[in-house]
Amino acid sequence: MLKVESLETYYNTSQALFGMSFEIKAGEVVTLLGRNGMGKTTTVNSIMGITKPHSGSIKLDDVEVLGSKSFMMANLGLGLVPEGRQIFPNLSVRENLIATASNHLDMKDPWSIERIYELFPELLERSSSMGNLLSGGEQQMLAIGRALMTNPKLLILDEATEGLAPLIRDKIWKALAQLRDRGLSILVIDKNLNDLFELADRHYIVEKGKIVWTGTSSKLKKTKDIQYKYLGV
Ligand code: ATP
């Protein structure tokens, strides 16, 4: 579904991605792992057209989309849950969900507010609360709900559970497992390896702007030296 090849991205003269390449097949859950500052967010932002890549290729269902603006990437079916959540602070929960809702790909059985509230009952209770009054966990649920309301074919989460309490983290992992079981493709960045082992099919480890290791959960579980070398665990 998504094929990233030889992606190079710079911040002014400082290079952040050095030939980033990976792919996600339809229905797969794939992670980008790696220590801070290795280029995971830059990869996601390069794909989404938020940070402009210098060269390489990004194919979505075999169509080249490198250089497309972020609204185009959203229209083409990429739903982003950004680092820091970026909830609209002066809109209510309900308004946040509606503000960017769409179904550009004419998905059957599209997401509705009611279905988002079924996935995250906490949001129903907070339906008329303003975005800036939500807890971190509620904001993350809302960010996921808002992305789902664009009816994406690939959901991308940058730091899925960072800074959240364990109870809330569990709710987020359970919701993502439900989405996976319904067939949604997911690209997820997070640091909680054990949860990612449960959720994901395959993992890519990012080191200094490129992929240095890839494999399944069972392979990564067994490869303690790789975990230690690249992830510091
Ligand atoms: P983190 O988990 O800390 O977000 P990351 O793996 O997502 O780490 P990036 O945020 O993509 O890493 O950063 C990759 C490199 O690009 C780092 O060296 C970082 O300092 C640099 N970088 C990121 N954003 C900018 C920016 N806006 N301007 C200049 N350099 C940047």
Number of domains: 1
Classification by helices and strands: alpha/beta
Beta fraction: 25-35%
Low-confidence stretches: none
Can you write the helix and strand succession as a string?
EEEHEEHEHHHHEHEHEEHH
CATH topology: Rossmann fold
What distance lies between the first and last C-alpha atoms, to the nearest angstrom?
A: 31 Å
What Rg do the Cα atoms give? 17 Å
Q: What is the percent of helical residues? A: 25-40%
Q: What is the CATH first-level class name?
A: Alpha Beta
Query: Given the structure, what is the number of helices?
Result: 10
Bound molecules: adenosine-5'-triphosphate
User: What is the CATH architecture annotation?
Assistant: 3-Layer(aba) Sandwich
Overall mean pLDDT score?
Answer: 96
Biggest beta sheet summary: 6 strands, mixed
Tell me the total number of β-strands: 10
CATH superfamily: P-loop containing nucleotide triphosphate hydrolases
Gross morphology is: globular
User: How is the largest sheet built, in terms of strand order?
Assistant: 6-7-8-3-9-10
Summarize the structure.
The protein is an alpha/beta fold and 233 residues long. The protein has helices at residues 40-48, 70-75, 93-99, 113-119, 121-125, 136-148, 166-181, 193-199, 217-222, 224-231; strands at residues 2-11, 14-24, 29-33, 55-60, 63-64, 78-81, 154-158, 185-189, 202-207, 210-216.
